[in-house]
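Dear support,

I submitted the protein below through the web form. The confirmation email said the job was done, but the results page showed an empty box. After a refresh the structure appeared. I'm attaching both so you can tell me whether what I see now is the final result or a partial one.
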Amino acid sequence: MLDRSGSCAIVTLFVDDLCFTANVGDSRAIMSCSGGKYTVNLSYDHKPNEKAEHQRIIQGGGKIYQTQSCSKVPDENRPGHYRDQLLYGPHRVFPGRLSVSRTFGDIEAKRTKYGGNPKVVVATPDIKSFKIEDNYDFIILGCDGIFDKLDNLQTVQAAWEASKRQFKHRGQMIHQNCGLAVEAVLKASIAERSLDNVTVVVIAFKNYRKAMKVEIDKFEADLK
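What the results page shows now:
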């Protein structure tokens, strides 16, 4: 039986004080810095309508299209009546009919014997590397179901708000706080009715612990 499945990937690799981030598809890596004051994007989403991907797909002999459908909605100008409204789906790449332009697998999009084109949907990753600095808090790795509903700032804020609710517990372990941050991001995306996969990983640096200690000290000072 032909395996038609495919997947995206977002990967981080740490070598001493260096971090490498590799991305294939539309999962994403973002980083919080300076106690949540700054948010940095560590990956590039591989979407068919993104300028660089669009150009690569067309040059490789592929096409990009967007599905349309019609739905009846209440007419605000004529109570009791309905009007037609066009609904647009995501941009997709052909061959493959995928809403993402780089993946692992998806043999029907890539093998010519199945009608695919190996130059269109590819598995080539984008790779970034950087040195870990003292003001880096944590990295969030998330799949597209998270970022379909939350932007980078909303995602980082959800993680910090969950962590700060535990700052008053001095004995709270760092991995427990990371777990609460993961749970908060998942809940925030589900609350926004995400219909895709929602998976999150949080990788904390030393500055995350320092930021929590500052909040604990403020909390205890307010109690005196």
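Response: this is the final, complete result; the empty box was a page-load delay. Residues 137 and 208 are 5 Å apart (CA to CA).
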